[in-house]
Amino acid sequence: MSVQRNPGGNTLRFGDMVLPHLDSAYNLARWLTRDDHDAQDVVQEAYMRAFRSFDGFRGDNARPWLLAIVRNTCYTWLSRNRRAEVEVPYDEELHGSEVHGSFGPDAHDANPETIISRRDDVRLVDEALAGLPVGYREVVVLRDIEDLSYKEIAVVAGLPIGTVMSRLARGRRMLTKQLAQLRKGGSGGSDGM
Amino acid sequence: MECNEARELLSPHVDGELDARDSAALDEHLRGCAGCRAEVSALQSARATVSAHATRFSAPPELADRIGDAMSPSYSRSAGPNSRFWQGAGLGAAATAVLAIAVGIGWMSTLPSHDDLLADAAVVNHIRSLQGNHAVDVASSDQHTVKPWFNGKLDYAAPVRDLAGEGFPLIGGRLDYFDGGPVAVLVYRHNLHTINVFVLPARDDSRAGSTRVLSRRGFAIERWMKDGMAYWAVSDADPATLAQLASLLGAEGTRR
Which residue among A25, A40, A60 sits closest to B107, beta carbon to beta carbon? Predict the structure, then answer.
């Protein structure tokens, strides 16, 4: 695809390449802010930023590029409005005691598909995911909902691939624990995190 | 491989993001470690659950309008009110999908293709099989011994043919990790060269009959499709020799 130099052409190109990813942008922002209005504000701001820096964009797939802008806009917004959420310390190292059995003592609790075997329990998945710290939530959303590759997630989240891997593993374990606690009617399962 | 090391590979394993070397090492560890196997199944379950049940939020219709409005000053200087930009803002689902596909195809062309990645994996597996002195799991020149050996180890039946009469004696067969799972490898010899032929069900019928010739670090690679199977042949033999074996095994249009 040739890069069009004239401003009008660039506007058209922006419309072709960036607007189709509006759902992805909104979905990411919605999961990171956990609020419809906040997500809309963030996405609008992100699109303005994206449009301003679009001249510098080189490539054929604008989705990871756009999502990186959405993600950074979210973090800026969160640190201004909900500082505590982005100040969770991330212990990237896994503890030795977690090597096995980190999904809980009960084999039943280890398997999310078993945990949510009842039809009603499907809604718990959103709740469990929303309960993850934002740094883990974003990698799970990008991988399992947006279906990005590890390489693309590394670009979007500005993390080394190794960190993407460890956060995904940990995020999935936390999610399983949350689901098990929610299923048992626990208090939201924020302990242990 | 120790559990601590294996554990870091479990998520990429579940996501199909491991290279052939790590996959093989991890598979070996998993065979002997029930704890890590349980962890894999829990991770798979978590992944499937989120994919299947977590909400993918769609942008509310008013958001596209808001963005269009916010951009209108910069926009109206550069284009008229009926430009495609505005049509873009109100794109229907079908048009959006078409655009997304068009853009997606463009992106794929800038990344290593699936074939390129598989060619790398084929060469790595080939080299490893020779280094480890583990070229074959079942050593036999008898196709009627090699073929049944794969029974129960794979969920497909790979055609096995000895080609000694044509100058390519069958040495045996091996199971190897390739393209995300265990596959049959037929090992042939030609003079002093070992030739690995990976045989797996073709994923993509649309490429049936197409043959590709690649090379990596001095190794010749040829890929073709035949009767619903994908074949990948690798060797340090010269490409013409490999092409000869490929055509004996059913590659069409090698010279296209």
Answer: A60
